Structure formats: C-alpha cells, structure tokens
Amino acid sequence: MHGILATHPLKRLRHAARVYVAGAEDPAVPKHAGFIPAKTVEDAIAAAQHIHGPDATIACVRNPQGG
Length: 67
Known about the structure:
Layout: H1 2-7, E1 20-22, H2 28-32, E2 36-38, H3 41-52
Parallel strand pairs: 1-2
C-alpha cells in the first residue's frame, strides 16, 4: 500500500514528455518508475534541451531528503 500512496501524486507526470531524476543514489529506482536518471540537474537540463531544443519547457522540483 505504501508504494501506491508514494507514487500516486506522480500520475500527473504522465503528460510530460520525459521525467529526469537528478542525483538518485540508485539509478535503477527512477528507471523502474519509468523516469530517466541523471547525475546532476545540469545534466538533466542539457539532455532535455538536446532532445526538445533550447526553448524546452522545464520544471524543476526539489525534494530534499528528510532527516
């Protein structure tokens, strides 16, 4: 049940062409969720601009780890 509750808000991302996850400790986790892992935010932006052009619409959501 926790997995469903944790990923349910991500359903709104189905309208995005691609979703990059920067800085994931284990790149297999975002891949499993259908996202594209990137080492840094800058790498993710460069990849998006390479595919969609310099005028690509980019949203950046920071999700700091609690603790």
